[in-house]
Each structure stands twice: as C-alpha cells, then as structure tokens.
C-alpha cells in the first residue's frame, strides 16, 4: 500500500522536516503558502480562483484531496518536479529550525508510506 505524505528517513533516522505535508509557512512571489504540499497543489491550477481555493484548503491531505477538483495546467507533467523542488527550497530557506535540522543530516533518504 502506498500512502501520501509523511516523514522520511535519512540514514535510518526519522526526519519529520522532509515531510511535504508538514505545516510550515513560506512566501513565493509575494504569496504565503502553508506547506510544500500546499504550494505544489496550488501550482497545478489554471485560474487564480482555483489557486486561492487550494491555498486555503490546508497543509497536507486536505489540500491534496481538494486538488482533485481543479483543472490541471497543460504543462503540469513537465514542471511538477521543479515545482516541488522550489516549494521545498523555499520551505527550508525561510524556516530556520527546519533548515538547521536538515543541515544536520547526510546520506540516503527514503520514505516508507505503509
């Protein structure tokens, strides 16, 4: 069974800071997002109205679920990895506690979403 969200492991140690569903605010292009997942789902949208609907839907499973009701932008499959990278980059750059925890890690990263 594959799940959505959740922390991962770095060198066998649970690392909650890499969870995309983790509530953590950051700003990109003057807009505040509430988690890396929140940003990711918002970037799928074609219209501003849908983006705002998703932005206010929540941090994790709530925004993921709400995103099933919006129209995807045409280039989504081409840009989605870069979008997730940008969201996580902003999350760690703008949240000192998460950045500090991440910088203490090294090694193999894996997720066990059972």
Give a description of the structure.
The protein has 114 residues and is α+β, with helices and mostly antiparallel strands. It has five helices and five strands; from the N terminus they run E-E-E-E-H-H-H-H-H-E. It has a three-stranded antiparallel beta sheet with strand order 2-1-5, with no helix packed on it. A two-stranded antiparallel sheet has the order 3-4. Helix 1 (36-42) packs antiparallel against helix 4 and helix 4 crosses helix 5 (96-103). The longest helix is centred in the C-terminal third of the chain and has 19 residues, at 76-94. The mean pLDDT is 89.
Radius of gyration: 14 Å
Please outline the major beta sheet. Answer: 3 strands, antiparallel
State the share of residues found in helices, binned by percent. 40-55%
Tell me what portion of residues adopts beta-strand conformation: 5-15%
């Amino acid at each position: 069974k594959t799940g959505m969200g959740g922390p991962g492991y770095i060198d066998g140690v649970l690392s909650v800071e890499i969870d995309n569903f983790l509530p953590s605010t950051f700003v990109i292009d003057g807009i505040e997002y509430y988690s890396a997942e929140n940003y990711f789902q918002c970037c799928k949208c074609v219209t501003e109205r849908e983006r705002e609907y998703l932005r206010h839907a929540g941090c994790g499973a709530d925004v993921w679920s709400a995103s099933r009701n919006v129209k995807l932008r045409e280039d989504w499959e081409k840009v989605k990895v870069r979008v997730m990278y940008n969201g996580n980059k902003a999350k760690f750059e703008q949240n000192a506690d998460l950045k500090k925890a991440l910088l203490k890690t090294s090694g193999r990263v894996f997720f066990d979403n059972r």
